[in-house]
Design a protein that fits this description.
With 376 residues, the chain is α/β, with parallel strands linked by helices. It folds into two domains: 242 residues, Type I PLP-dependent aspartate aminotransferase-like (Major domain) (Aspartate Aminotransferase, domain 2, 3-Layer(aba) Sandwich), CATH 3.40.640.10; 120 residues, Alpha-Beta Complex (Aspartate Aminotransferase, domain 1), CATH 3.90.1150.10. It is 38% helix and 14% strand. The protein contains 13 helices and 13 strands. A seven-stranded mixed sheet has the order 1-9-8-5-4-2-3, with helices on both faces. Strands 7-6-11 form a three-stranded antiparallel sheet, with no helix packed on it. Strand 4, helix 6 and strand 5 form a beta-alpha-beta unit. Helix 2 packs parallel to helix 9 and helix 10 packs parallel to helix 13.
Length: 376
C-alpha cells in the first residue's frame, strides 16, 4: 500500500543525541529546547521562537496571550482542521467562518471584509497545504480595522511569501507551526510559536509553563536551585521538552532537503496529471513558494477515484470536510458557498519525501487509467 503520508526519520542522529541527554539526566524543558528555538527563529527570520507541546496548544496560547476573550469574534476559515478553531472555544470566543479562494483553498480576503463587525478582534490565516494565503491583502484589511493577524502555519514549515519565510513576517502577531508526526518537520508531536514582539514572547514563555516566571532549567543554570518564583496569572502546561527538541534538531537538518523532494514529486504529479480534462491540479501563485505538505486535486469523480485507487493499493483521503459541519460548532452558522461546493471535489494524493519515483509513477498511471474508463 502506498500511504498518503510517511515520516522520514533521521534515526541514527536522533538516537545518538537522545543518548546524550539521557546520560545527562535532563530531558524536560531545558537547553535543547532553547537551542531548537534559537535555530528555528534564525531559519524563519523571526526575533523569537517558543517551543510548545502541540500546534493546538500554540494557537490557544496565541489567542489567550493576545487578549482574545469571551464574546470576541475571530474570522477563520471553515476549510481547515478543527484544531485551528477549537482553541477559540476555550476562550469562549466566537468563530466567524470565512470562505476560501477556489484555486488555492486559502481564506478569501473579500469574504473577510464581509464578515467584519464591531466585535471582530482577529483574523486567523491558514496556509492550506503549504500554499501562502494572500497576506498583503489580509494585512491591509487588518490594519484598517485594527485587527490582529495570527497565522496557522501547521502545513507551511519552510514555505515562503514573497521571498520571506512564514514565521518572520513582520505584520503578523504570532505564527504557529506543527511538528506532528506527518508534518514536514516532525518531533512526533510538538509545535513552535514565532513572533517579533519581545514583550509577547516573554508572556508566552511564562504562560506555557503555568505562568511561572523562572523555568526549572533557568533556576538550575544559576549553579544553585533557588525555589522562589512567581505565578501572576492562570497559565498552562504547554511547553516543549528536550526529547522533542532533540528530535526536532535532527529533523531540522533535513527540512530543506525534504521540501525539495516534495517539490520534485509535485512537479511529477503536475506533469503526469496536468493534461487530464476531468481533474484540476493544485496551483501555486507567483507570491508563494510552497512547502508542498499536501497534493490536493479537484474532481467531480472524487469518491469513485478514491475507491479505485484504494483497490490498487494507493491511499487517498480528503483534507478537509468543513469544520462547521461538526456538532461542536453547531452554534456558529456559516455562509461559505465556495467551501461547501469545492470540498466535495477534493482528494489528497500520497506525498512524502521517501516516496519513490516508481511509486509516484504508479499513482499517475492508475489515475490515468481511471480517466480512460470514464470515456467508455
Amino acid at each position: 500500500m502506498i500511504p498518503i503520508f510517511r515520516p522520514e526519520i533521521n534515526k541514527e542522529k536522533i538516537l545518538k543525541e537522545l543518548g546524550k541527554i539521557f546520560d545527562s539526566g535532563w530531558i524536560g524543558l531545558g537547553p535543547k529546547t532553547i537551542e531548537f528555538e534559537e535555530k528555528f527563529a534564525r531559519y524563519v527570520g523571526a526575533k523569537h521562537a517558543i517551543g510548545i507541546s502541540s500546534c493546538t496548544a500554540a494557537l490557544h496560547l496565541s489567542f489567550h496571550s493576545t487578549g482574545i476573550k469571551e464574546g470576541d469574534e475571530v474570522i477563520v476559515p471553515s476549510f481547515t482542521f478543527a484544531s485551528t478553531i477549537i482553541p477559540l472555544l476555550y476562550q469562549k470566543a466566537i468563530p466567524v467562518f470565512a470562505d476560501i479562494l477556489p484555486d488555492t483553498l486559502c481564506i478569501a480576503p473579500e469574504d473577510i471584509k464581509r464578515k467584519i463587525t464591531n466585535r471582530t478582534k482577529a483574523i486567523v490565516v491558514v496556509h492550506l497545504g503549504g500554499h501562502s494565503a494572500p497576506m498583503d491583502e489580509i494585512w491591509d484589511i487588518a490594519k484598517s480595522h485594527n485587527l490582529l493577524v495570527i497565522e496557522d502555519a501547521a502545513h507551511a514549515c519552510g514555505s515562503e511569501y514573497k521571498g520571506k519565510k512564514h514565521g518572520g513576517l513582520s505584520d503578523t502577531k504570532t505564527t504557529c507551526f506543527s511538528f506532528h508526526a506527518v508534518k514536514n518537520l516532525t518531533t512526533g508531536d510538538g509545535a513552535m510559536i514565532t513572533t517579533n514582539d519581545t514583550k509577547l514572547c516573554e508572556k508566552l514563555k511564562k504562560l506555557r509553563w503555568l505562568d511561572i516566571n523562572k523555568s526549572t532549567w533557568d533556576r538550575i543554570a544559576t549553579g544553585s536551585y533557588p525555589w522562589e518564583y512567581r505565578i501572576d496569572e492562570l497559565g498552562f502546561k504547554y511547553h516543549m521538552n528536550d526529547i522533542a527538541a532533540v528530535i526536532g534538531l535532527a529533523q531540522f537538518k533535513l527540512l530543506d532537503k525534504h521540501n525539495q523532494r516534495r517539490q520534485a514529486i509535485t512537479q511529477k504529479y503536475n506533469k503526469g496529471l496536468g493534461e487530464l480534462n476531468w481533474l484540476e491540479i493544485p496551483v501555486e501563485r507567483e507570491y508563494t513558494k510552497s512547502s508542498n505538505h499536501m497534493y490536493i486535486i479537484k474532481t467531480e469523480y472524487r469518491n469513485e477515484l478514491h475507491e479505485y485507487l484504494m483497490s490498487k493499493e494507493i491511499q487517498t483521503t480528503v483534507h478537509y470536510e468543513p469544520a462547521h459541519h461538526y456538532k461542536v460548532f453547531k452554534d456558529f452558522p456559516a455562509q461559505v458557498p465556495v467551501t461547501e461546493k469545492i470540498w466535495k471535489k477534493l482528494l489528497t494524493l500520497p506525498l512524502y519525501p521517501a516516496m519513490k519515483d516508481e511509486e509516484v509513477e504508479k499513482v499517475i498511471k492508475k489515475i490515468q487509467e481511471f480517466g480512460k474508463s470514464l470515456t467508455r
